[in-house]
Amino acid sequence: MEFAEFFEQTAPRLVRLCFLTTLDREAAADAAQEALSRAWRDWPRVGADSSDPAAWTRTVALNLCRSRWRRLASQARLAPRAYTVDGRSDELPDVDLQRALRRLPVRQREAVVLHYWADLGVEACASAMGVTAGAVKQHLSRARQRLAAELGEPSLDLEVESP
Amino acid sequence: MNDLRERMDRLADAAAEGIAVARPDQRQANRSRWRAGPALVAATALVVIAAVIAAVLVGRDDGDDDVAVGGDDAGGSAAQGNDAVVAVTYGDASLSTDPVDLAVRFLDADGAVIAERSWSEVEQPTEGAPGEAVVMGGLVQRVPAGELTLEATLQQAGEPMSCTQPFTAAAGDRLILRLQLGSAAETDCAQVESVEDWVANRTGPTGVDYIGLTQAEADDRAQAAGLTTRVVGADGMDLVVTMDLRPDRLNLLLFDGVVVAAQLDGEGAVPAGQGSLAVDLEPVEGNFIEGFDVTLQVYDSGDNLLSERTWSESVSETGTAAASGDVDPYYTHVLREPMPAGTVRLVTLVRIGLEPEGTAMRDDRRCR
Q: Which of A40, A76, B316, B329 has the CA that lies 20 to 30 A from B27?
């Protein structure tokens, strides 16, 4: 696959993934941009037929999202930006969901986003997060309880599906 | 759960609206691949910020060392580049001289040749002085991280003069090797300097925003701001420049095609000597358990205690925990402390357990 094609397929969803895990548009754009830049830099290896460039880039992006160091640097505007962020964060919808996600510990939020939004199985979540499948299940379980309480939706208390 | 997915979808779609990430291959079409490395290092060095992310992991009584202090990209499988960038310099830049017959080779720890380069690659014919050449920057080479050797051979009056210079390059390093041929020494003929040292105190408040840009990008930005630019140094070599004062002129130092320092004529550098330390708690793997406290001690390189704070004390000063009655502020808080610039050592002491306030610390974990 050519990098250009990979970028077009991956970038929009990667930005969304980064936003849902950081709940910060600036940090999301920064992490997605950096992850894609690294994918391009290492494309001969990352884009090789035997590898999964989307998974690789997702993992890099998650690591970057998790790193508050980058967020601080981004806020301090020390790094040059290749991306642009227009619009205001306070105009985003579903404040309840934002609050509920924000209250989750980072790992629980990642597990929820990867499993329930990105449709990754437990093993794939574990691989992306760099933890064991058991840890993912535990994060999901706790996250569901907290989300159910925060959002008042008992239907959230579902079994973990493992495609 | 479909409802949750749909809500996250809507939220993510709304958030992504207005965000545009750039195609790196298009943005950096005129730059070689490895130039995509983050410019954060340079920027950070220039403003002398000492920042540490402390990641505190409290596992499930597995007896492992539970405290980790790390920096960017802690954990995960994100691949890191294993290369460093080295610039070899020789003589003075922008002075017209006879061409120099200098060959350099980069060898790895096994003596295998990584690259063979010639000084003629950076020499350009001098206008109006036939037979003479001018150099406008060092000779840049990408090398793998590790124990390496620079081998240089200068042909002078038919007499070869060779020397070797061992050096160590870590991944992401940007080094300058200043060749000083001419002595009888066969080893240690180059001074090894970091780019950060080269450009130290050479960025002014205006120039901070230019760091990491290509020269073309810097020119565009400067033009939009009503400024002109000139390159006063490239790839480790300082160029000869006029000393006239033009307050609208931005002086650029470039390394490997990107701006590593920038300063307006007559403008002072970003004050050095003072930085700040930012400490953040994050679960690395496993779960936070509630009822812990963290004492953070910061020592300077002479082992003098610069600061000692407890996490709960720092959080309580913000008033957020008391206001919300929630524990989240303990996880989301960022402790910031002013620090003298330089290397500091962070010692983290973790008290685990739901003990009444005021009891002795137990299960202290120390991480340096």
A: A76
